[in-house]
Amino acid sequence: MEISEAISVLQGFSGTNLTVTLARIEASLRGANTDTCSTSLADSLADTSTLAAAGLVKRLAGEINVVIHALGILLCLPHILEPQETIEYVSLGAGNTGREFDLETDKRIAEFKFIRWQGGAEAIRQNSLFKDFYCMAACASSKRKFLYVLGTDYALKFLNGGRALSSVLSKKKLHDEFTKAFGEKYRTVRDYYVPRRHLVELKDVSSFVPELVSAGLD
Question: Does this model's pTM top 0.85?
């Protein structure tokens, strides 16, 4: 089944308002028995093809964050590359697919974080941002290091803040690596970030991908 067909099938089942549609189906099944149930299901387009369509769309939706990340990087490249700067590799898939960073050129290494900060409790996003900063700051490369984000205000507020590193380093591998390198030297994110803030440049790329901002994507 093609995705366009799957969407059409789901629209046929859902109608203009899924809540209203489901309420109508529920009402149609009151008093139904083995003789009449199949007719109600058929009238509602509740069949195996509709279920298959939903499964296909769900699978593709599960990959949408990877698509957004890849497109975001690709659309930023023409704006961030300097004249004659040469790409050595770009990593577009989930994670870094065996490569250390999202982008490496003959002049820079870079990570992209297309997070639309909400300003509330965003521990998982903060943890991810710190991991990227830490990995880049720890990298021995002499190339310039960039962390590209959608707006720097919330990112800098977090990095200059007092959140406990014991909370941020929630993943065991990262926690063990950090502890091996620094022991108990640093207590908060700020303690670690401030002496290293010159190592990684935080850059706002909102103007290069305004669609990610205007769409309200998380």
Answer: no
